[in-house]
Amino acid sequence: MKPHLFTRVPKCFRNGWLMLLLFASFLLMMFLSLSPVSRSPAPAIMAASHFVSDTRNNSNNIIINNTIRPASRKRSCSNPVTKVGFMKTHKTASSTIQNIFMRFGMNKDWNFVLPSHGSHLGPPSNQYQLTVPWRRSWISDVSWKAMTNDQGYNIFALHTKWNQAEVSEVLGSEAKFVTILRNPVDNFESLYNYVHFENHFNHMSVEQFVHEYIEKRMPIQRINNYLGRNQQLWDLGLAKKDITNLEAVKQKIEEIDNDFDLVMIAEDFDASLVLLSDELCWPLVNMTSLKVNARKKSAVEKLSEKARVILKDWLWADQMLYDHFKEKLRQRKEQYGLNNLEREIEKLKQYNDQVKSQCVLETVRNNTKKLSEEYVPWSKDVVAFKIDEETNPYCKFYGISELHFIDYIRDMQVSRYWLWKDDKKG
């Protein structure tokens, strides 16, 4: 039998090593106890929703189905963000992100940047023609202006043509800015069919449009003066004259990189939401959602490989934008830690499964007439949800249509204004 390793070491050395080990352990415990850990309460969530976060007890726990589970990862932030500018790009899963922001802000009684009516932040002459960058003067006549002059705004999340300087002026220096991008070819196909570009192009499919217009270099006008080629750069504020100007495109991408704290990627949606949770210091469970305003599979046009290559070449500016931020998101994921990211993604999927099982009675792909009006989407080509709001009233806000939710948020803001005004009189 071989002697134990310690039998060859003098006793005084063994005792010295043990004392050194104990001292190192003591130093490690002291370091951990002094390390900053966020204990700021995250924004509270409506008590009616037992599957979303409630951190009003200042704990670092997540409540799901009344079971407390310790959060798996300390956050890199110190306080939850209370001001967010979200550039809602077209056909990029942005309606789902908007729904997340509206639910979160609604539960905090936050102030939203909204027009007096409607769902877009465009020029007062026609808010749905997003031809010029947004200006704060466009909301100068809203009924709640005195309240927001006093309290400020918290969330900007409607369709617009982006103007970083103006939005920053309204939200303040502490605001975080986020947006989302999508593969430009798929983005254009979705936009073309959702908005029904075929009505302007001899009832052509996207495939036909690519070969008859793009391949033949025919002149192509923007639909409604603002929808069309390189839509994502257009949404993010690039001027019409610069939409195919290489140097202007490069400069715009650099500006976006400097201005936005996080650019999400639709094809990497779950990872983007985990990083959004981390960026805003909002509990991951608040990133839960249903895929609102998502098209039915039958409404998605499958393009030939040749058409996709032609479209990608035509949309080169949006492709540059997309490639830049796709790579940046990849780097961001590595910085976060891929193992941690996978664990958080799996957790988010479980949360979403709970939302679906507790809220959705039926996914409606065809006969939306059987739904109450507030659940009927704007387009007949998108999926809707029959929601179980009797069991859990909060479920309503997962499935409500975008337009009805905006109206609801506006009504709440008006009501809050009158309460604020009464308090000021008192």
Identify the notable features of this structure and list them briefly.
single chain, 426 residues, alpha/beta, four-stranded parallel beta sheet, two-stranded antiparallel ribbon, 14 helices, 8 strands, 44% helix, disordered N terminus
Structural class: alpha/beta
Average pLDDT figure: 84
- Helix content, binned percent: 40-55%
Tell me the radius of gyration.
Answer: 25 Å
State the end-to-end distance: 90 Å
Read across the widest sheet, the strand sequence of neighbours is: 4-3-5-6
User: How many beta strands in the DSSP annotation?
Assistant: 8
Beta-strand percentage?
Answer: 5-15%
Question: How many helices in DSSP terms?
Answer: 14
Low-confidence stretches are: 1-15, 17-74
Q: What does this entry show, briefly?
A:
The chain is of the alpha/beta class and 426 residues long. 44% of the residues lie in helices and 8% in strands.
Describe this entry's structure for a reader.
The chain is an alpha/beta fold. Helix content is 44%, strand content 8%. The chain contains 14 helices and 8 strands. It has helices at 11-34, 94-107, 145-151, 164-171, 184-195, 206-214, 231-235, 246-259, 269-280, 305-314, 316-336, 338-359, 396-399, 402-425; strands spanning 61-64, 67-70, 84-87, 155-156, 176-181, 262-265, 360-364, 384-387. The chain has a 4-stranded parallel sheet with strand order 4-3-5-6, with helices on both faces. Strands 1-2 form a two-stranded antiparallel ribbon. A hairpin with a 2-residue loop joins strand 1 and strand 2 (67-70). It is globular and about 70 Å long. Residues 1-15 and 17-74 have low confidence and may be disordered.
